């Protein structure tokens, strides 16, 4: 399959009135904050600090610290979904445009606000990256408290995965390995093997699995209103990240990314979030970009750096992001049987205030579209410009969830 033709409405980089990626209305150029949707509730505080003359990196960190502190946000910090051994490991990086510095930490245990630790690496060491036990010891040395990051709710989700999903883990072969085989998909009559030499409709199989998981979730003490979400996170292991870029009136710009990483990952796994140039990249002369989604795929295309360099050479934020997505598609030669297990969202902010959000797919499901959060004097969420129509499935994954079962998840 060849590469897709991308038809999007690009921004006019020469316009004196920057426009949204959708081209629908002008924006206030500066100051502005652009971040992942899970930072939406924390934008007001970050923007007030930025508009009041606060440093751009400190403003971005104020936004991402909110989800890190929230035990109900399982994507970052306290309450993050753990690795396959039940241990929460966190990653983060930051870049300060005005001074052209960077800091990063990876595989950190027992420290909640790793975004702030990445800044501490930048401020208090001659290094850029610290990982593992050394990063934890450094964090404690500069004043960060050790604490248990595994909440009771996340522990119960992990136990549910451990009992019912551990046979579909992150041991190889990986998606990009020639030995990898596409999971069973619906046959023309809507049926699938059940492992016993028999065939059952997928809807029946998925309903049975959902009921078993829901029953076990009840046994584990997961609250009734949280069981459907817990089952979904077992059946479709989530990624979890937040990126934020901030630009002030003077044209100073900074960015940061923080994550608890891929759910049930192998201990020690680092994704793109702590990698300068992959999960986050900021250049004071050009702009800033960050990512959420399939970390391994983003590392291979150095996504954030690629986007900023594209803008340096004249591409609009939308086109720069779409080019990075095309590189991911190219790595799989356009093979949709594999690309349906990949997803990526880029958050892009140019130095003049023009911004964009682009994604490989429209969202995780019709009720969970990919969005970016923006504050330029008004706080709002906007849907991304998607390369492919349709919705992704995280890998490893069960076959596509039938509509009647998906309603239960949503």
TL;DR?
By secondary structure, the chain is of the alpha+beta class.
Explain what the structure shows:
The protein is of the alpha+beta class. The chain contains twelve helices and 17 strands. The chain has helices at residues 43-51, 56-69, 114-124, 132-141, 152-164, 202-219, 224-235, 295-301, 303-312, 317-331, 336-339, 403-409, and strands at residues 32-36, 90-96, 101-108, 129-131, 191-193, 199-201, 241-247, 253-259, 280-283, 287-293, 344-350, 355-359, 363-365, 368-369, 371-375, 379-383, 385-386. The strands form four sheets. An eight-stranded mixed β-sheet has the order 4-3-2-8-7-1-15-16. Strand 13 and strand 14 form a beta hairpin. The longest helix has 18 residues, at 202-219. Mean pLDDT is 84; it is low at 1-28, 185-195 and 394-402.
Notable traits:
410 residues; alpha+beta; 8-stranded mixed β-sheet; 5-stranded mixed β-sheet; 12 helices; 32% helix; disordered N terminus
Blueprint (SSEs and pairs):
Layout: E1 32-36, H1 43-51, H2 56-69, E2 90-96, E3 101-108, H3 114-124, E4 129-131, H4 132-141, H5 152-164, E5 191-193, E6 199-201, H6 202-219, H7 224-235, E7 241-247, E8 253-259, E9 280-283, E10 287-293, H8 295-301, H9 303-312, H10 317-331, H11 336-339, E11 344-350, E12 355-359, E13 363-365, E14 368-369, E15 371-375, E16 379-383, E17 385-386, H12 403-409
Parallel strand pairs: 3-4, 12-17
Antiparallel strand pairs: 1-7, 1-15, 2-3, 2-8, 5-6, 7-8, 9-10, 10-11, 11-12, 13-14, 15-16
Helix pairs in contact: 1-2, 5-7, 6-7, 9-10
């Amino acid at each position: 399959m060849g590469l897709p033709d991308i038809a999007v409405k690009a921004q006019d980089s020469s316009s004196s009135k920057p426009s949204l990626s959708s081209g629908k209305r002008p924006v206030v150029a500066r100051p502005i904050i652009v971040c992942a949707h899970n930072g939406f509730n924390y934008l007001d505080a970050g923007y007030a600090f930025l508009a009041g003359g606060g440093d751009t990196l400190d403003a971005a960190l104020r936004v991402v610290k909110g989800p890190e502190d929230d035990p109900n946000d399982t994507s970052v910090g306290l309450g993050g979904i753990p690795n396959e051994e039940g241990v929460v490991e966190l990653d983060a990086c930051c870049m300060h445009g005005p001074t052209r510095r960077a800091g990063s930490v990876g595989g950190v245990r027992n420290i909640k606000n790793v975004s702030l630790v990445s800044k501490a690496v930048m401020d208090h060491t001659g290094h850029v990256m610290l990982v593992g036990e050394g990063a934890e010891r450094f964090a404690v040395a500069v004043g960060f408290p050790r604490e248990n990051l595994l909440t009771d709710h996340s522990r119960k989700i992990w136990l549910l995965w451990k009992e019912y999903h551990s046979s579909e883990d992150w041991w190889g072969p990986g998606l990009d390995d020639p030995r990898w085989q596409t999971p069973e998909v619906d046959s023309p009559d809507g049926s699938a093997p059940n492992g016993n030499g028999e065939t059952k409709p997928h809807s029946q199989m998925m309903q049975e699995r959902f009921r078993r998981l829901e029953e076990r979730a009840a046994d584990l003490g997961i609250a009734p209103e949280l069981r459907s979400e817990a089952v979904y996170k077992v059946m479709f292991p989530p990624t979890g990240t937040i990126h934020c870029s901030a630009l002030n009136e003077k044209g100073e710009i900074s960015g940061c990314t923080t994550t608890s990483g891929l759910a049930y990952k192998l201990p020690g796994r680092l994704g793109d979030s702590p990698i300068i140039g992959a999960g986050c990249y900021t250049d004071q002369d050009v702009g800033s970009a960050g990512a959420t989604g399939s970390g391994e795929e983003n590392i291979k295309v150095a996504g954030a750096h690629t986007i900023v360099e594209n803008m340096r050479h004249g591409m609009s934020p939308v086109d720069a992001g779409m080019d990075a997505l095309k590189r991911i598609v190219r790595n799989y030669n356009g093979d949709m049987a594999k690309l349906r297990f990949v997803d990526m969202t880029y958050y892009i902010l140019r130095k003049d205030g023009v911004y964009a959000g682009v994604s490989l797919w429209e969202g995780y499901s019709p009720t969970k579209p990919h969005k970016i959060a923006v504050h330029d004097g008004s706080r709002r969420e906007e849907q991304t410009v998607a390369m492919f129509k349709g919705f992704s499935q995280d890998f490893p994954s069960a076959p596509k969830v039938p509509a009647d079962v998906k309603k239960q998840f949503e």
